[in-house]
Amino acid sequence: MSLPIIDTHLHFFDLAQGQYSWLKHNPPAWPNLAQIRQNHHLASIPAHDRFTLAGLVHIEAGFDNQHPINELHWLAQTLTGFPFKAVGYAPIDAPPKQFSAAITRLMTPTLVAVRDITEGADSRRLHTPWLQENLIYLASLGLHFEAQLAFSQCDTIELLLTLAQRHPRLKIVFNHAGFIEQTQPCTAVLQRISTLKNVMIKCSGHEMLQSPMALDKWLGHLIDHAGEDSLMLGSNYPVSLMQKHYWQVWQDYFNVIGLSSTWHKLSRENASKCYHLRTDLD
């Protein structure tokens, strides 16, 4: 029997139609870069005898950061008929009028959230005085914020979690499990998130870590301290090609978790609720 999954974190590329300046002109020093720096579409993911890709959440990939609606239009064309939701791009530190205008331009039926990468020194942009106003505005539209920074950036994480605690309608989803490393497991952050129903964590991006725990310890640490109701699985395709092909990511997740209620929650059920994503199998 095939197991349906919802991939909560992947990217498709069309290098002819999109700009992708970060990938074309100033690429990161990733292994297997040639496999990543090419076109990736839904058809690039082959069928599998154990798993079925029942739905997906596409994360903005720099298709056109000056006009990010163009990526959403492209997705609507390339994914016609396939169950998906989209996370678009908007600068979270923009003044409220500018931010609301940017969101208005992004509004499409598949839009569910916005992401603005604030890793490292860029996390200072989350300390803008109008962060709360911008996040509450997203919540008023039924959208959420996808935060991408390390849980070890304590002051900024505290800011986001305090806002989430004060405003239950405000939803935050942390990408790549907050980049927890073997040397920085951030247990207290995970335990606090376990108490917040409006904060979720995506288990993805393991291949991006500098000193990772083994996959079984990483997933076990997340489940033990954040709790299975706070977690979702994602592939981070095609960046995951740094280490393994698409379905190997999911096979490795399955080998750790096994067929269980935890697997069903992390591989599909939590994602369906978080992203309001119904699949053809529902």
Automatic annotation (TrEMBL):
Recorded superkingdom: Bacteria
GO molecular function: any one? hydrolase activity
InterPro entries recorded for this chain? Amidohydro-rel (IPR006680), Metal_Hydrolase (IPR032466), Metallo-dep_Lactonases (IPR052350)
| Any one Pfam family match given in the protein's UniProt record, by short name | Amidohydro_2
Q: Which SUPFAM superfamilies match?
A: Metallo-dependent hydrolases
**Residues in Amidohydrolase-related domain copies:** 6-275
Homology family: Belongs to the metallo-dependent hydrolases superfamily.
**PANTHER family from the xrefs?**
AMIDOHYDROLASE (PTHR43569), AMIDOHYDROLASE-RELATED DOMAIN-CONTAINING PROTEIN (PTHR43569:SF2)
What name does UniProt use for this protein? Amidohydrolase-related domain-containing protein
Origin organism is Pseudoalteromonas peptidolytica F12-50-A1
